[in-house]
Amino acid sequence: MTLESQSSRLARAHRPWLWVLGLTALLRLLSLDAVPLTDHTEARYAEIARLMVVLGDWLSPHVTPTEVFWAKPPLATWGQALALQLFGFSAWAARLPALLWSVGALGALAWMLAGTLSRLQVCVALVLLALSPLFFVSAGAVMTDATLSATVLWVHAAWWRVLQTEGSARTRAGRWLAFGLALALLTKGPAAAVLALLPILVHATWRRHWPVVATLLRDPWSWLICLGAALPWYVLAELKTPGFLNYFVLGEHVMRFIQPGWQGDRYGFAHAQPLGMIWLFTALAALPALLLLLLRGLWWLFQRLMNRRNAAAGLDHAATQLSAQTAELRAFALCIALAPLLLFTFAHNLIWTYAMTALPGVAILTLCALPTAALAQARSWFLALALLIVFAWAYFFKLPGIGSENSDLTLIQAYERACAGQDCGLRYQDKPPYSAYFYTAGRLYVGMPGAAGAPGFTVRPFSEAAKMPGNALLCNKRNCLFRDDATIGLSE
Q1: What is the 3 state secondary structure string of 217-280?
Q2: pLDDT at 305
Q3: Distances from the Cα of 23 to the Cαs of 127, 131, 308, 385, in angstroms?
Q4: How far apart are the first and last CA of the chain?
Q5: What does the pLDDT average to over 419-434?
Q6: Which residues pair with 454 in a beta bridge?
Q7: Nearest alpha-carbon partner for 66 in 335, 445, 465, 422
Q8: What digits encode the pLDDT tens for the residues 393-412?
Q9: CA distances from 349 to 186, 262, 266, 464 (A)
Q10: Residue 330 exposed, middle or buried by CB count within 10 Å (0-12, 13-18, 19+)
Q11: Angle made by CA atoms 43, 436, 82, in degrees to the nearest 5
């Protein structure tokens, strides 16, 4: 193959990766309603968004019609509520904003890497991030994590653009950084600000970029943009519901992380974990990129031990040149990957989604470790397609059953079939889960006594089903639906 033909092939090598990226987005779009809204997290946030539409209160999210939700700022909820208002109350509509935020995160990563890496490398980095399990799951889940990922990554991308530009272009990038930080504050508050700024501060210290930081801090417009976009909501929320700032700042951002099994959570329970669990969570969340990175590192060590330093892990000459040219990028990517790990290593209460902001750093580090020539080969993007097929199998064949066991949608559907269009009564022996409130359009808040003469139904804990085997219309892992005439004599 001539040098000219090889160059032409490399110039077109990014196209299959673009197709993989497009298929990934299409799969996530088609799978948005493949799984019911599950309790507790997804159904709760979907119900909060539904209540925002029904109550018409776009300032204070509500966890019930009479109780405000102080655990999170409203940026993610605003998107979910807007989608529900536009497309109706469904799981598909509630999950759509997460997909759009995730596309925005990929756009931020592309903006960050453009001009530093080739189109092929940028596309591969996007695929590595998009196919990370946590990123893929969050891209279609009613949570705040997709919004957090997009806003924090926008801040990191803007910092990289600040370092790559001068003059007015640097000033504009700094103001975009300030705007991204404001959005992060409206997503998860101070925790989001720490996740966004910690990698930048570590990178600035390590690589001696403090003069650049000082330049950004001297721009009054950056302060005005950040505080002007984020602060008004915090002030209005505290004025409307006094006590919000005390609970949100002290409780959600201090006690949650330092007190094991924190009992002050108003809306759920703290997830007590062993110290250092964030490292395992990140390893699972970042697969397969992290696995590729580790294998590449082991291969490099093996080659060094075999005294094949000229091969240097099998990197070709172009990749070796790239390694020298992107030392700064790799340093910043390492800061992005390690910052949440260092932040949460000594936290007692956390879940695997706390690894979300580390994923772009892992993707960039993996991309920089892979030989450019190998990325242009069909077997590389075939492996990505194979992983995409695994995700498709999981979402269309495996997860629907698991989701049904963790949602009351199937019980509500069974009730509606048995009711056959009548005004039937429905009551829960215990407090209904959020999925029941969402899928009954909130009718359970005021009770569903039903019309005279219409059949009545009761949902009881799964343990009650053992007292009357065979009489339950349908069960999931927590609850069972009974027709009232079949529960006569069942202890209350």
Answers
A1: HCCHHHHHHHHHHHHHHHHHHHHHCCCHHHHHHHHHHHHHHHCCCCCCCCCCCCCECCCCHHHH
A2: 79
A3: 10, 11, 40, 9
A4: 80
A5: 91
A6: none
A7: 445
A8: 999 999 999 999 999 999 99
A9: 22, 8, 15, 32
A10: middle
A11: 45
CB 175 within 8 Å of CB 228: no
Cβ proximity of 68 and 128 under 8 Å: no
How far is it, in rounded angstroms, from Cα 51 to Cα 63?
Answer: 8
SS3 per residue for 27-96: HHHHCCCCCCCCCCHHHHHHHHHHHHHHHCCCCCCEEECCEECCCCCCHHHHHHHHHHHHHCCCHHHHHH
Measured distance CA(273)–CA(227) in Å, rounded: 35
pTM value is 0.91
- Residues contacting residue 121 through CB under 8 Å, at least 6 positions apart: 113, 322, 367, 372, 375
- What type of residue is 463? S
Helices 359-369, 289-305: inter-axial angle, 10-degree rounding? 40
Nearby residues of 304 by Cβ (< 8 Å), 6 or more positions away: none
298 sits in which H/E element: helix 289-305
CB count in 10 Å sphere of residue 263? 8
* CB-CB contact of 51 with 442 (8 Å): yes
Distance between CA atoms of 376 and 399, rounded to whole angstroms? 33
Q: Which two tokens stand for residue 315?
A: 């990197």
CB half-sphere exposure, 200, CA atoms < 13 A: 27
Q: How far is Cα 110 from Cα 125, in angstroms, rounded to an integer?
A: 8
Q: Is the peptide bond before 62 cis (omega within 30 degrees of 0)?
A: no
DSSP H/E element including 428:
strand 425-428
Query: What is the token pair recorded at 332?
Result: 């910043």
Tokens representing residue 356 in the block: 């979300």
Residue 479, φ and ψ in degrees, nearest 5: -130, 160
Q: Which residues contact 146 (CB under 8 A, 6 or more apart)?
A: 76, 97, 98, 99, 101, 102, 105, 138, 139
Summarised one tens digit per residue, pLDDT across range 336-371 is 999 999 989 887 778 889 999 999 999 999 999 988
